[in-house]
Amino acid sequence: MYAEERQQAVLRRARTEGRVDVAALAAEFEVTYETVRRDLTALERRGVLRRVHGGAIPVERLGFEPALTVRDTVMTAEKERIAKAALAELPEDGAILLDAGSTTGRMAAQLPADRELTVVTNSLSIVSVLTPRPNINLLVLGGRLRPRTQATVDDWALRVLEDTYVDVAFMATNGVSAERGLTTSDMAEAMVKRAMVRAARRLVLLADHTKVGNDHFTRFAGLDDFDCLITDTGIAEGLAEEIRAMGPRVVLA
């Protein structure tokens, strides 16, 4: 097994079980402890695991919030499929909201060129993608910029959202579970997300399967607020059924 294949297997195990142990991995893959430690270090540098004594934990379990530039390099194929599937939820014309996030950013890049749309966003990275597009009427929410997520937050953004109403909001999240709904790591971003939820006629959540079943610091919405969850085929069937029972359609991309 090549190192990259082994590291992907380690990451899958960590996300499934919540933790991996150096000794157990060395025995399973028939490699030395040092080889396993190098694998864990490589995965930590990619921002997907955090080293702990004797092993590692996926960042989703720690409530750690990787930078957008790091998140955009993880689960890339799944995020591309989710973004493409989300295009089916677009209105023929009218206004949409794109929340700040790596998957919503990929959706922005795939918006059709032959459709006139008003796009409201608090994401500087999405702004940079959509600025050259002549068919997009781009409205940018102001506020304090969080460099880690390239999202605007706080009062300026909240005041504009009070008077905003869009056809569909495409939302991002750090975690989603049947128990706690949608959660994120930062209180300021949670406040903006709550305002976005109130500002939309329909709500579509874009979240790869590593987000499903995880909870973070601050809750900003319930699953029953949402019309649809678009995720990837890596989601456990039991988790998908739990979410369907709460109300949203679940689309597997």
Automatic annotation (TrEMBL):
<dbReference type="InterPro" id="IPR037171">
    <property type="entry name" value="NagB/RpiA_transferase-like"/>
</dbReference>
<protein>
    <recommendedName>
        <fullName>Lactose phosphotransferase system repressor</fullName>
    </recommendedName>
</protein>
<dbReference type="InterPro" id="IPR014036">
    <property type="entry name" value="DeoR-like_C"/>
</dbReference>
<comment type="function">
    <text>Repressor of the lactose catabolism operon. Galactose-6-phosphate is the inducer.</text>
</comment>
<dbReference type="Pfam" id="PF00455">
    <property type="entry name" value="DeoRC"/>
</dbReference>
<dbReference type="InterPro" id="IPR050313">
    <property type="entry name" value="Carb_Metab_HTH_regulators"/>
</dbReference>
<dbReference type="InterPro" id="IPR036390">
    <property type="entry name" value="WH_DNA-bd_sf"/>
</dbReference>
<feature type="domain" description="HTH deoR-type">
    <location>
        <begin position="3"/>
        <end position="58"/>
    </location>
</feature>
<keyword id="KW-0238">DNA-binding</keyword>
<dbReference type="InterPro" id="IPR001034">
    <property type="entry name" value="DeoR_HTH"/>
</dbReference>
<keyword id="KW-0804">Transcription</keyword>
<dbReference type="Pfam" id="PF08220">
    <property type="entry name" value="HTH_DeoR"/>
</dbReference>
<dbReference type="GO" id="GO:0003677">
    <property type="term" value="F:DNA binding"/>
</dbReference>
<keyword id="KW-0678">Repressor</keyword>
<keyword id="KW-0805">Transcription regulation</keyword>
